[in-house]
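Annotated sample (chain length 422).
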Amino acid sequence: MIQRPRGTADRLPDAAPAWRAVIEAFERECGLRGFQPISTPTIERTELFTRTTGAATDIVQKEMYSFDDRGGDALTLRAEGTAPVVRAYLQNGMHNLPQPVKLCYVVSVFRYDRPQAGRYREHHQIGAEALGDESPAVDAELIDLLWSTYRALGLHDLRLELNSLGDADTRPAYRQALVDYFTPLADRLDHESRARLSTNPLRILDSKHPDTARLCEGAPRPIEYLGGPARAHFQELRSLLGALEIPFQINHRLVRGLDYYNRTVFEFVPPGEGAQRTVGGGGRYDDLAELLGGARVPGVGFGSGIERILLGLERLERMPDGAPSVAAYVAPLTAAALPEALRTARRLRQAGVAAACGFSAASPRSHLRRANGMQARAAILIGARELERGMVAVKPLDGGRQEEVPRDRAAAAVRAIVQAAP
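Output written by the structure step:
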């Protein structure tokens, strides 16, 4: 039997309420702040990611799903959410709109990675970007948007970690300071970090290897190398977060996994440690548009994995429960009643009552068993007697008393049962 690819997951109907709750909470918070939805293609030109993400990053070296199409174009399944949005901003002339342009999205992201809890080769993200304004107040609003989304869902124990990576003019000095620090310690670094020493030393700070992580505690800190503008930006951001009463901790090892970040980087993490500790995060990327061939466009944004959010809700026992999918189940008790059962179900739906219909004649017990399996609130029984009298029998499925009502009163009867339910 053919099975789904490794690292992917089927989303079954019983998971839909929790997914819907996450997306609705996010979209509600976005709407309150004037963020507009955007959709970009699932496939992009490969160079969009190789040019922006960083040639030495794990994403480019190990994780992208890339291929040549029949026309010879090098394409890649969406490897992250920000670069496609910036590409769309540039390509569609969105610099002509009032700035900042505030955009939000819900997307699938594809990365070849070792599957584990909360990490799939196709995973799903909520994300937001604000383009065209370099004020630290924009950073604060993006952080507040994600913070408020988590709080609305009941994720109250997440910790905000914050850092600043400075600007391009100070990055070479910081990079060299890391090389000078780690070179004498190279034989104590894990294999991957030793390779990064010559390609991307900032990524050593993100190592999960215990021995390397201990060595990182004494490494030079990005904040020590900030220029004046970046230092003032970071100070103002911290002040604004204080005004918004969003607590945070400075994490000097926080660098994120993409090379285009500058200045602000942040993550929300749950209690405890582990490879899957980050629920969501992002940062500022003022030079990203130039990497794509456009003019400089300051920007800041974030992404948060829906699967990671659901793990957090499960950990706190706050997984949303869904309402029953139907309010009424219409049961034809005879073959002659089937046309009227279908008409009754349609009248219920036209009146705004969710209804399912049995597709063949069966006994009342058989139909009621199916109605209870659907968690319907009421069953509407139509047999020979009801057909003859132009009536339907409405039975509450919580044990209430069955009653006959005219066909055109069925919707009102079901609504009364639903409203009376605890």
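Annotation: The domain at 13-170+226-315 is CATH 3.30.930.10 (BirA Bifunctional Protein; domain 2).
Annotation: The first strand starts at residue 36 and ends at 37.
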